[in-house]
Design a protein that fits this description.
Layout (H helix, E strand, L loop, with lengths): L4 H12 L5 H8 L3 H9 L21 H11 L10 H10 L6 H14 L13 E13 L2 E12 L4 E7 L4 H15 L5 E4 L6 E4 L5 E3 L1 H10 L2 E4 L9 H13 L6 E2 L2 H15 L11 H10 L13 E6 L5 E4 L2 E4 L8 E6 L3 E6 L2 E7 L7 E2 L6 H6 L17 H13 L5 H10 L7 H13 L5 H6 L30 H10 L4
Parallel strand pairs: 1-4, 1-8, 4-7, 11-15
Antiparallel strand pairs: 1-2, 2-3, 5-6, 9-12, 10-11, 12-13, 13-14
């Protein structure tokens, strides 16, 4: 039967408008009576329609077994499920005589009709979804896999995005802090997956035993939590879609950045720009819909949550403390003392009795040792022989003027070692003054050949102009009324008599 729509329409026009007889159409077009009957009955070609399903004598007896295999596979990881080829091999062992193509078609059809159907959900104002995704960035010339924290508001579709070294407690905390500041409030209810950072044990469909880290964050901000059922990411499908959108639109091509600060500044700007986007079916842009979410938010607390891991420890004999498999230095005066480590996502703060005694940039590597040479200068003065071998000073590139100063001090001192000790005393000035300022002072002292620590310190003491020490009566009109008596010499003479001197 022909399917030419133009000819089909013309035949219907000619016959149904009584302009041409059916017999004439059959003769003119060479049609069968049954074909003409179908044309006149249907406004358009109905296509081929089978009266009965085609029998499948070879694959038919095995379809139930194939469906059972596919159903049993759902409890296993995707990489360990049956492929169509493996199912073909198995049913051949059962006696199947057909070809592989029939099996492949049967598997595809069974999977198609067994796909899950989802219920469209209402997204109420003031609710959020949180998830982590991963992406590659070019950081300082090297490809690096970064963790992306995303918080999305399904009602307004606004989202916040921030990159971290990895998914961990500190990055969850910092991500929440930044997201709440970005949105201007705290969502009433937040949905999560079952990350080990937040969940220690799954008790039931929605019952969870939570980590202390998550409970601390929740206690500070007072939001309600919701955890998705296991293997049901569709329960927070909005944030899942946001992660896919971000990777495709913000991170393609792979961005080239210097560090995380530059990357997060770029992502923050992207989040702000995205607020001007309007999604299909929405009544306005994200920025216009965001106030509806904000009206249902909890207020921000007075203080921001302290997003750091706290770990008490003791500094060892090398004046080092260990955190996250890396060692960090503290001033030698705190060696063998109790130290509280505060690990943030970007820095490590070291405290003794609530006093901050050191701060380092955090390393996300392993087995690193990070010194601040300033911490070891007092020890160097007690152990001057270690000056050329001190590991904390190994990467300290002193200006050339310091080498000149050391040579002159060594030549001038009669007693061996006194010149080194004096040079170390000069280095200790770095505890109070920056290197650039000390370098200028050393250069001045070399110019006048004054090589001691005390002489160099004279160039570091601030010098004030004499004009700044002059007392001026301008704008002090009340002092003009004060009457100051002139000096009386007789008063001194009276003291001489009274004191017994004559």
């Amino acid at each position: 039967m022909f399917t030419d729509m133009k000819k089909w329409t013309q035949i219907r026009l000619d016959v149904l408008r009584d302009e041409v007889s059916k017999r004439e159409i059959i003769r003119r077009e060479g049609l069968h009576w049954e074909t003409l009957k179908k044309v006149l009955t249907h406004p358009q070609p109905p296509g081929y329609r089978m009266q009965e399903a085609r029998s499948k004598p070879k694959i038919g007896p095995y379809q139930e077994r194939i469906a059972q295999i596919i159903k049993e596979d759902k409890v296993y990881p995707k990489k360990q499920r049956h492929t169509a080829k493996r199912i073909y091999d198995r049913i051949k062992e059962m006696g199947y005589q057909g070809g592989y193509t029939q099996v492949k078609v049967a598997v595809r059809e069974i999977k198609r009709i067994s796909r899950e159907v989802f219920m469209p959900l209402i997204h109420r104002p003031g609710e959020a979804q949180v998830d982590f995704g991963y992406a590659l960035v070019n950081m300082s010339g090297q490809l690096k896999r970064v963790a992306l924290f995303v918080m999305s508001l399904p009602c307004s579709d606004a989202f916040f995005l921030m990159a971290f070294e990895r998914e961990c407690t500190e990055s969850y905390w910092e991500g929440h802090n930044r997201a709440f500041q970005f949105f201007g409030g705290v969502p009433n209810r937040i949905s999560y997956d079952n990350s080990k950072v937040m969940v220690t044990k799954i008790i039931g469909p929605h019952e969870r035993k939570l980590t202390d880290g998550f409970l601390k964050l929740q206690s500070h901000y007072l939001f309600r939590e919701h955890f998705c059922r296991v293997a049901r990411p569709n329960e927070k499908g909005v944030v899942e879609g946001v992660i896919k959108f971000v990777r495709s639109n913000f991170l393609v091509p792979v961005p080239q950045v210097k560090d995380f600060d530059e990357l997060n500044a770029m992502l923050f700007d992207k989040c702000l720009q995205d607020l001007n986007r309007r999604l299909r079916g929405k009544s306005g842009t994200k920025k216009e819909l965001l106030p509806e979410d904000q009206a249902a938010f909890l207020p921000l607390p007075v203080s921001v949550f302290d997003a750091c891991l706290k770990q008490p420890t003791q500094a060892n004999s090398l004046s080092l403390v260990r955190f996250d498999d890396n060692d960090y230095s503290v001033p030698v005066v705190y060696a063998h003392h109790e130290i509280l480590i505060k690990g943030y996502v970007d820095r490590v703060v070291l405290c003794h009795r609530e006093k901050v005694v050191a701060e380092h940039r955090r390393s996300w590597g392993k087995e690193g040792v990070f010194f601040d040479y300033i911490h070891y200068l007092p020890l160097l003065e007690r152990k001057p022989g270690s000056l050329d071998y001190a590991r904390p000073l190994a990467d300290l590139n002193l200006p050339e003027c310091f080498d000149t100063l050391r040579r002159r001090l060594t030549a001038e001192q009669e007693k061996e070692g006194d010149g080194v000790r004096e040079f170390i005393r000069v280095l200790r000035l770095l505890e109070d003054y920056p290197m650039a300022k000390l370098r200028k002072a050393v250069e001045k002292s070399l110019h006048i050949r004054a090589h001691s620590r005390d002489a160099i310190a004279q160039f570091l003491v601030p010098r004030f102009s004499w004009q700044q020490t002059t007392f001026i009566l301008a704008n002090r009109q009340h002092l003009r009324l004060v009457d100051v008596a002139g000096p009386d010499i007789t008063a001194y003479r009276a003291l001489l008599y009274e004191g017994g001197a004559s």
